[in-house]
């Protein structure tokens, strides 16, 4: 376990602290303000005094980070019950957990964590009743668990495993290849891979990579000119075959997939996180060209499989809640010949897969999962009976399999793996976690529908201990996301249980901008409609207080990434409504987000400040970095970010924290917690997860005046 440490106190003398006064309870390191940085946006002059914090390689920024961490961790370590939280989280986190198995070349593969392992281990079985063997243990790739597995694919013949790793939480990946039978690591080594799956084809695989970044620019430089390559086993990366590039549009991104029969290569082309073009290449014909199936970026086209001369494609073109279409492989570009297999319904069609001789369709009904099996013509529906209200990712199975597997979880149900019999339609528990010291029957989850500012009904899940009184005194944590067509369905997190067992309420609001009700719900929270997301969240907070779940003195709010933007925006707009605010890795500078790494891809949701004066005015009005007011009584704020976050670069959080420390009246803390050797969140080791969550709960309870361990 890599522990946090405090730098020598002498280093803090690099920053003079503001003098304490009777009115100022908290003081902060002096952060230099550069008055010379001013930009003109359509005639509006915008100062950017903390732009120097965008340079993550400068000595000044590094010293600022260290100084802020000294302040934050000294505060956190002084909280008397913080160690109690660490001890309890460590205790309940220590349980065996499994992933859903998948089958390839007659072998079964899955992941298992013994409990406190930093990374889950990949296992293989030659049959379900055979002894499992370790195929890949990411814990052996680093001493502190900060090297994590990112993606993988097993060759069709089951001989090789190709996998990518991430170091320190970065989105940059390296690909390696392992011979499965011998366990030998081959010499193949691929660098500068980002936002790419590994797709096996014959004796090699397809992948996407970017040019090597400039020295010092790997974690912040804009990502441009991604290309699709084919790597043949046993060769150097320099010999890889270029499959596709489009230099006229350097900001576009590409993804490759192969039909199960290996007859077709599919290419997805996108400009942003919403909408894609789709192409196909016939691999049975030498020198064949890519043929366009769908053009433009207005709609989503997700290839499912090639079945008997037909391409099955999930799309929202003409179907805001998605539909499954069939496209003739011999003439894929003729959209007039496309046939609907699963038409749009009242519920969102989240995903479709092929297994057990069936179409496996996963729907979302009021943010809850529903799975239905169909024949390949979309007939004879058969619903899979799920164990309750919760979430599942569909059934993992191959076309010819007789059995498959699926996972199920909810806010109070740890992930259970079920085995499904396609012939009988019966499910049975395959693996169920055993967590000592927790009785999940003590808790309940309800779904409510509250009214937002414009009259829109918004769903929210609320979880708490049975017997709780609605008297306005319950510590409550409200979480949301609200963007990028991402849906928040019920899921389990062991770290959340410490909050619930100590009498806390956990609420998740399904805001507009997400995908809970299809593309219309998504679009209603984007660009010039983004304020709807903030209004939905504010209305959720008001509902929780009006119905007496809690009060403003006992309400904490939390969100990450786009959800971090949400927390920053509503904290600025309604500082009177919350006791504690926790924005994680948030997009805080809405005028400049597109300048870093993959930021421009978010413009389909946000719009960009350079698009038009109207768009600039709208972004400027809610951008968290730009909308704080001086001498304001803000909630207690702890910004969370990480030094290797190259998705939402930490400069966003740096500038927000500096602005908050400048503008707050000082009555409540305004801290920033900057994790080292960590990124946007994926692949974070268990040790860091426990410590981060302990700090979060300690900060919340401390600033609500609650000691959950007081006897």
Task: Walk me through the structure.
This protein has 3 domains: 350 residues, Rossmann fold; 149 residues, Methylamine Dehydrogenase, Chain H (7 Propeller); 89 residues. It has an 8-stranded mixed sheet, with helices on both faces. A hairpin with a 7-residue loop joins strand 26 and strand 27. Helix content is 16%, strand content 32%. The chain is built from 10 helices and 38 strands. The protein is α+β, with helices and mostly antiparallel strands and 711 residues long. The relative contact order is 0.11.
How many domains?
Answer: 3
State the strand order across the main sheet: 31-32-34-33-35-36-37-38
> What is the CATH architecture assignment of the largest domain?
3-Layer(aba) Sandwich
Per DSSP E runs of 2 or more residues, the count of β-strands stands at: 38
Overall shape:
globular
Number of helices: 10
- CATH class call of the largest domain: Alpha Beta
Amino- and carboxy-terminal Cα gap: 31 Å
Q: pLDDT under 50 segments (min length 5)?
A: 1-24
